[in-house]
Amino acid sequence: MKRSVRLVLTLVLCPVLSLSGPCVGVLTARATEMGTWTRLALHEPNVNSLAISPFTPTTLFAGTVGSGVYRSTDSGTTWAAANTGLTTPWIVSIAINPAMPSTVYAGTYGGGVFRTADAGTTWTAASMHLSDPRVISIAINPLTPTTLYAGTVGGGVFRSIDSGTTWTAANTSLTTLDMRCLAIDPTSPATLYAGTDGGGIFRTANSGSTWVAVNMGLTNQTVYAIAINPTTTSVLYAGTDDGVFRSTDGGGHWAAMNAGLTDQSAVSIAINARIPTTLYAGIYGGGVFSSTDSGTTWSAMNAGLTDKNVQCVAVDSRARTTAYVSTDTGVFRYDASSSCTLTSSVSPAAGGSIDRSPDSSSYARGAVIHLAATPSVGYTFSGWSGDLTGTTNPATITMDADKIVTATFTRLPSYTLTPSTGTGGSVTPNMPQTIIQGGSKAFTIVPSVGYRVADVSVDGVSQGVIASYTFTNVTSNHTISARFEEENKQTVIVLQIGNSMFSVNGHSMGLDSPPVIRNGRTLVPIRAIIESLGGTVGWDGTARKATVALGSASIDLWIGKSAARVNGVTTPVDSANVKVVPEIINGRTMLPLRFVSENVGCSVDWVDATKTITITYQP
Fold first, then answer.
1. Is the pTM above the cut of 0.70?
2. Potential cystine with 313: which of 23, 268, 281, 381 (Cβ 3.0-4.6 Å)?
3. Topology adopted by domain 491-617
4. How far apart are alpha carbons 334 and 280 in whole angstroms?
5. CATH code 3.90.1150.10 for 36-337
């Protein structure tokens, strides 16, 4: 292997999120390449290490030999130095805490380990008791990220259980202390593999307490890279100057896997964790090769790669169409296609729909899509999942890769509104109503003929006399009941002295003769008045007697007599004035209005200013 600087990052694979769906140009080996490499703005020489943020794959870190750490938040389009606190610019390994991606570790050549808790804004030394400051590889326990390991150039392996604050050597049984790479079993983190410079591969099953060499079949024992199949962790790959080797028994046996490789200095290996049969090899001097059959055969994917002195390969397995390589002259990005697909679905299927704008079968990279989740009747929107999370609605998503989005809806509870009535009317609707939470329903109260609303109660609480009631924003069961009572048939008659017109409940009617005042009392032609109240007036010409009947009352009055008979009882017409008697005026029988009205159950009111009489009759 002919390189002036033999510093290589070995573990750069970011954790892969579970996604699925078609991709326009999946990043895998093909007889004819479908993508191309683009040179990015970071033109630093000897970019040794790359790391992709696991939850925000647009964020990358690059470690350089001489210029420290660079960070990009836009998929490598732009970069900025992130070196505050670093005391050495020789960065040869970078590892990101998979549970808390803002915590990043940098292994330096000569300065030990540095740690940042704010995604590279500031760094602090984390090297206490680390006797060899030449840290070439860092591995983090994915299940307990406070435990990590550092591989050094001459001091062997060190372990920290406090996030790098303090370190302890873990070298028992190692026959060489010149490390080149570390790999940790993601499902059983007590198992680690160490690749060395000249000593091959060592394995520990007890977190580094003891090691055993596992080199059977390995023809080159300078190992630059080790990658572990994340779903079948007994399958391993090793990168050496003799190419790629594969083990299917946890390192017990190795076999060369070099068919198709045109150069065999494999310095970096990356596995697509979503499709573990797909892997990528960075070949110093030969560029990048990919395999879709677990390394059995390889194909070059070097279109656009102007510097084939590859130091490190990092795959954005979340996007599946994007990869990055660092080389002796900078960083390149591989995009398998200029377009991406957006797969959207709803759960449950009946819960609602997703509207997207613009709506297309594929989108240009960088396009911003607006998504709006619309719940069906009886459902509410709960949130997004997949490549879009949270509850913001509408929301936007940037198509920097194939994306899958699911809108989840929750069925709303329903409640019952129960109407009831007594006799004399109805409530409409008159059957129990099922209402979805948050809904509304109006009820109309309708009295029958001859009845009126006496009271309306909702949940037992009186609402008074109302004609309708609307339940709004329903969140519980409710009752509504209406009570009715018979109408009181009140009649109001208004007369005026000297006016032959009078009104009955506002309707004008005529008298045979206008009311007059005699001896301080009002006399009227009573027939029209009594008949408007539903009564009768009889006349006995011989006896010159008028008989008035209304309801249960019967009154006999005689012309010129001051006494009358009320229900058979002789009663004075006016006990205060004997001159008040029935008279015949202008040929019409005129009776004392107050006497007659009050004895048939009416009330009489007099307004002197207008000479107006109001008679009120309540049966």
1. no
2. 268
3. Copper Amine Oxidase; Chain A, domain 1 (3.30.457)
4. 12
5. no
